[in-house]
Write a structure and sequence with these properties.
The protein is an alpha/beta fold. It has 4 domains: about 220 residues, Class I glutamine amidotransferase (GATase) domain (Rossmann fold, 3-Layer(aba) Sandwich); about 230 residues, TIM Barrel, CATH 3.20.20; about 80 residues; about 40 residues. About 30% of the residues lie in helices and about 25% in strands. The protein contains 17 helices and 31 strands. The chain has a 9-stranded mixed β-sheet. A hairpin with a 2-residue loop joins strand 27 and strand 28. Helix 1 packs across helix 7. The protein is elongated and about 85 Å long. The protein starts with 11 loop residues before the first strand and ends with a helix. Bound molecules: zinc ion (ZN). Zinc ion (ZN) binds next to loops.
């Protein structure tokens, strides 16, 4: 074996093929691309031909990580391309190797045993009901996952059997490792068992992240262990609690704002009110002053316009534009009167919206929409696995949709996976949560225990400051933003060149792109992303804005006396329900009946 330098971080994944890309390797390639890792394929016999001359192979693959899909090597036996000696040749040439596709069979067991110098033996099935555990000392690349359990596992999930105490298990099921790091011939090897890799294009109707631990997070963990900062990573993790509906009164249902601000200060978190613009003239001066003077703890964002049933489910773009313009003028009037700034964030009433609503939000230059799951009501569920694990969904007319969660959905595993996938923690609730404020306090403490560096901010800062970063092959930095505004931070001690990208599918609607308010040139890359190049000095922070043209379609919004009476009645009935009836279950039921009879809803 020739002497070698210590392994460097690879920058591309090389996948051997036997005339076609094996389905498992196709899924691995999709996960790698999702993580920011470039992929190449090459026929196995060609790789072996080059590898047999290590001087040539080492030069050619100095920055490559080889994929060993055990099923591909097994299949290659019939083509006589494989002999056990080739493992020595490959690990002599490649500094990084990812071994996956580990099935329960003797061929795979012997291949894994040879590659691990006998430290890994048989492969078996996991015990039903067991859970995955990520090692507490798994390293920085695992983020907040270290020390946590995820599961339960599926019945066909696979584990390595090993009795070697020297083994470095990154993740295990029970006592059996499923993700293992090993050094061989001065190469870094990662062995991945567990379950089959997820198809990122598969349809989903689950919005929790934990079911994707084994099939998505675990293989991404393997990639991060090999590729380090070449993979997309979050630098700032934000959380925001959003309470729907309250008017800014001293007391709204179970909310007493003077008590709430004490609670926010004591437990150091932030609450945003999803504010109904219709209520813009009704704020208490004292409560508004509380919001104006404490933007670190309290903020406002949009919650519809009139909050009539399904107002943003409309397919009438003119109606939607009018609604957004009226909502904006109401919020600006509220800001002028009270001094309370508001976020350009929309939380849809009843979580219902149409694709046209996303169009209207984009051309009215909102920053993002936040919703409790779901998809536009005017189309069947179009969501796929890649949408659910991405920081935001961009497929609805190019306008970013962030998902929020209810407190009871955020156990330690979900919190850690939000951080791992670069998703801000957006928490949705109503005033009723303050009936049991301990639930909120324990959530805040849970978040702090899992991701201590989480920053509690207003929703707009949370989505704008959730940029992902990775180091490119040429040494420069890449940043990816999702909201229509994105904050870029250079945390290093030297100036660095950044290429900032944002998924875009409405290129023709862009008016201009700005950095810190100054228009800058941009390109649309082959991947359909807007790209802007800039340099950030050490510690510098800049803000990117994508500004869209006003599509100028608007109409007079239901301004007739009947509509105004309908909105007035609806708001007053809702207020009575929230202020008085909500504290009595029988009265809540009576209020719902009354609303159905009066409003037909
Ligand atoms: Zn509401």
């Amino acid at each position: 074996m020739r002497p070698r330098e210590s392994p460097a971080t690879p920058s591309r994944l090389l996948i051997p093929i036997l005339g076609y890309l094996a389905p498992r390797d196709a899924r691995l390639a999709a996960l790698a691309q999702f993580s920011g890792v470039e992929c190449e394929t090459m026929p196995l016999h060609e790789i072996l031909r080059i590898a047999k001359d290590p001087a040539v192979g080492s030069r050619q693959w100095d920055d490559a990580c080889l994929v060993i899909n055990t099923a591909v090597l097994k299949e290659s036996c019939s083509e006589s391309a494989y002999t056990p000696e080739i493992l020595d040749i490959l690990t002599d040439v490649f500094r990084s190797v990812l071994v996956h596709g580990c099935d329960v069979d003797s061929f795979t067991a012997s291949l894994v045993a040879q590659l691990s110098n006998g430290k890994l033996g048989d492969i078996g099935h996991a015990q039903p009901g067991a859970c995955y555990t990520v090692s507490a000392d798994s390293g920085a690349f695992s983020g907040a996952l270290g020390g946590l359990t995820f599961g339960p596992v599926r019945s066909r999930d696979r584990v390595f059997h090993s009795s070697s105490a020297a083994l470095r298990a990154i993740a295990s099921i029970g006592q059996d490792p499923v993700l293992v790091a090993h050094s061989r011939n001065q190469s870094n090897l990662i062995f991945l068992a567990g379950c089959d890799l997820a198809d990122l294009g598969a349809p989903v109707d689950l919005f929790g992240l934990e079911p994707y631990f084994g099939s998505v997070a675990l293989p991404i963990l393997a990639l991060r262990a090999l590729f380090g900062d070449r993979c997309w990573r979050l630098r700032e993790h934000h959380a925001s609690l959003i309470i729907d509906d309250p008017a800014l009164w001293k007391r709204f249902g179970f909310i007493k704002f003077d008590r709430v601000i004490e609670m926010l200060d004591e437990h150091r978190f932030h609450m945003s009110i999803a504010f109904i613009p219709y209520n813009h003239r009704r704020s208490s001066k004292i409560v508004a002053e509380m919001f104006r003077s404490r933007p670190d703890r309290l903020s406002l964002c949009y919650h519809g316009n009139d909050h009539t049933s399904g107002e943003f489910m409309s397919n009438d773009l003119a109606f939607l534009n009018s609604a957004l313009r009226i909502a904006t003028s109401r919020m600006l009037a509220h800001e002028a009167r009270t001094g309370v700034h508001h976020d350009r964030i929309m939380v849809f009433p009843q979580s219902r919206f149409s694709t046209h609503a996303m169009d209207a939000l984009r051309t009215n230059n909102f920053v993002a929409a936040i919703n409790s799951g779901g998809w536009p009501q005017d189309e069947p569920n179009p969501l796929i696995v890649a949408d659910v694990i991405a920081p935001a969904i961009m497929k609805f007319r190019g306008f970013p949709l962030f998902f929020r969660k209810y407190p009871q959905q955020l156990d330690r595993a979900e919190i850690a996976l939000h951080h791992f996938f670069g998703k801000p923690l957006l928490i949705g609730e109503h005033h009723g949560i303050f009936k049991q404020p301990d639930l909120l306090v324990s959530l805040v403490s849970r978040i702090r225990s899992v991701v201590p560096e989480t920053r509690w901010t207003n929703p707009q800062s949370a989505v704008e400051d959730s940029s992902l970063y990775r180091r490119a092959r040429d040494g420069s930095m890449r940043a990816r933003v999702y909201a229509n505004g994105g904050v870029l931070r250079n945390g290093s001690t030297v100036a660095e060149t950044y290429l900032v990208e944002r998924p875009e599918c409405s290129e023709n609607d862009i008016d201009y792109v700005a950095l810190d308010g100054q228009q800058v040139p941009y390109e649309v890359g082959a991947n359909g992303f807007i790209q802007v190049a800039c340099t950030l000095g050490s510690g510098e922070c800049r803000k990117l804005h994508v500004v869209y043209r006003d599509n100028a379609i608007s109409s007079r919004l239901h301004a007739g006396i009947c509509w105004r009476t309908h909105v007035f009645a609806r708001r007053r009935i809702s207020d009575i329900r929230d202020m008085y009836f909500s504290r009595n279950d029988r009265l809540v039921s009576a209020a719902q009946t009354l609303r159905q009879r009066l409003l037909g809803q």
